[in-house]
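Weekly sync, protein design subgroup
Attendees: M.S., D.O., the rotation student, P.L. (late)

Item 1: inverse folding check
M.S. brought a backbone from last month's batch and wanted to see whether the design step gives back something sensible before we order anything. D.O. pointed out we never logged the input encoding, so this time it goes straight into the notes. Structure tokens as presented (513 positions):
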């Protein structure tokens, strides 16, 4: 069986060769030429296919190599950003459009590119002119007609009176058609792209930030505080949150959860809040930036959490403050009042504030150059003619410095040992040759946690990670470029402060009080 299978191809081959020999010479030549052409075509096609396959494999290896480098760069940056944001292992993002802050310089785009296609502008929403004009005339910022009557009522009743109580439902009707046009109305302006916020924020901080940025405003009113500047308060929920402390009283100023709307010029409040949390001081109230279409011409306004514990005697009595002169303040620093929980003597002249609180306040105020607490008369630097201390004549009081009264030294009614940093009006336009070193006078210790952040050279990274959460503030300051300029100022002042610490032998100690 096997031999027959072997002989059959051989016999077939012999028959073909015999028939080929019997053919005429012309036919044999034609057959040979056809076989050569077919063979040549086959060889050429195989050579081209192998060359094309080799080129394709070379391109694939190049792409694989470059892609590996690109992924390597991204992974490095991603790891850095994860370390900055959480300080722990990687967590999966909760939103798809993840944005990581790195320290790479941002490429500048041309100011104007010809031939580009601009996006279509949104159609303007037609409003009810009569209702809009009526509300504009009664805007909270223009209340000259009622101001005199309200002040007389306030003086006679010795209690706060509402200047204007605006029902927000009327505003919702005016902007009802615009609400559907706002695509990002349902998206929070607090951008937290991971499962948890940066470690320097507590759960209460995140909750307060989301409330201030996203809460539905039910009512807005302006109230007086005696001789102090009036407050513009917005109210959201009518019921007090279960997380509200027991010492917070339910009063007529705020019947639920509220926030204080500041002027658009006071944007330092937001930066001060993030700087305070990054340094680990935790002495400022949560603050965010938010836009109201019916206030301040739609400009972003700083919103600060309302804390009724700062007014234990009521809003008419004002802040719960400490009355100290500069001389008494320096004396309390020398006596180290309440240090190691030692009760000071009655004749010592110590206030209720713990000794470490002054060190935290001095460091915070120096970085932001806030002088309205410890140096209200501008005695430690060269003020400008348009500064308030010069216009009101307070700068002339520097001749008798010991009797100058400190201002805005505020604490909570139930916690008189710790300060609360409010009215944080800082200055970023003050050069290093005109810093207020009077804020550091008498300070012999500084908090270790805050100084370690300044020494670690990660202040910029942490501030970028922190400020990026507030989208409205981030964009109002010019995005990354504008925020970098603000951080540049703080970093230069931090270097000056570290040099001052070494030159004056200031101790850096833990201050967990």
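Designed sequence read out in the meeting:
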């Amino acid at each position: 069986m096997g031999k027959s299978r072997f002989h059959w191809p051989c016999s077939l081959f012999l028959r073909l060769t015999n028939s080929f020999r019997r053919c005429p010479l012309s036919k044999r030549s034609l057959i040979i030429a056809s076989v050569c052409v077919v063979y040549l075509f086959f060889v050429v096609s195989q050579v081209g296919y192998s060359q094309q396959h080799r080129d394709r494999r070379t391109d694939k290896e190049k792409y694989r190599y470059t892609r590996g480098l690109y992924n390597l760069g991204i992974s490095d940056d991603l790891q850095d950003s994860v370390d900055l944001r959480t300080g722990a292992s990687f967590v999966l993002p909760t939103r798809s459009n993840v944005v990581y802050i790195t320290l790479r310089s941002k490429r500048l785009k041309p100011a104007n590119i010809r031939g580009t296609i601009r996006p279509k502008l949104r159609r303007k929403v037609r409003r009810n002119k009569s209702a809009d004009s009526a509300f504009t005339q009664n805007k909270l910022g223009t209340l000259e007609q009622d101001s005199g009557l309200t002040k007389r009522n306030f003086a006679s009743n010795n209690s706060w009176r509402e200047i204007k109580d605006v029902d927000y439902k009327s505003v919702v009707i005016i902007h009802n058609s615009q609400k559907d046009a706002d695509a990002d109305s349902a998206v929070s302006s607090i951008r937290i792209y991971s499962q948890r916020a940066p470690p320097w924020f507590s759960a209460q901080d995140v909750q307060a930030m989301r409330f201030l940025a996203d809460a539905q405003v039910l009512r807005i009113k302006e109230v007086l505080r005696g001789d102090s500047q009036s407050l513009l308060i917005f109210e959201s929920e009518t019921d007090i949150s279960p997380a509200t402390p027991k010492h917070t009283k339910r009063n007529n100023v705020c019947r639920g959860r509220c926030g204080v709307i500041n002027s658009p010029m006071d944007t330092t409040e937001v930066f001060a809040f993030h700087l305070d949390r990054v340094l680990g001081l935790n002495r400022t109230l949560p603050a965010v930036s938010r836009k109201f279409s019916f206030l301040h011409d739609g400009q972003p306004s700083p919103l600060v959490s309302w804390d009724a514990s700062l007014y234990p005697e009521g809003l008419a009595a004002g802040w719960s403050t400490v009355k100290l002169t500069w001389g008494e303040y320096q004396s309390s620093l020398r006596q180290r009042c309440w240090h190691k929980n030692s009760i000071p003597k009655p004749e010592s002249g110590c206030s209720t504030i713990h000794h470490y609180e002054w060190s935290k306040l001095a460091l915070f105020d120096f970085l932001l150059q806030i002088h309205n607490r410890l140096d209200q008369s501008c005695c430690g630097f060269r003020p400008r003619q348009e500064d308030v201390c010069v216009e009101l004549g307070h700068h002339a009081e520097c001749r008798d410095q010991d009797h100058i009264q400190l201002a805005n030294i505020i604490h909570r009614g139930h916690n008189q040992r710790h300060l609360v940093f409010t009215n944080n009006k800082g200055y970023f336009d003050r050069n290093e040759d005109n810093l207020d070193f009077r804020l550091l006078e008498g300070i012999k210790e500084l908090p270790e946690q805050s100084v370690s952040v300044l020494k670690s050279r990660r202040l910029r990274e942490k501030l970028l990670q922190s400020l990026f959460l507030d989208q409205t503030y981030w964009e109002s300051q010019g995005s990354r470029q504008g925020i970098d300029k603000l951080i540049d100022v703080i970093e230069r002042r931090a270097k000056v402060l570290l040099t001052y610490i070494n030159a004056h032998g200031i101790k850096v100690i833990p201050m967990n009080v």
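Discussion: Residues 386 and 399 are 21 Å apart (CA to CA). The radius of gyration is 37 Å.
Action: P.L. to compare against the previous round before Friday.
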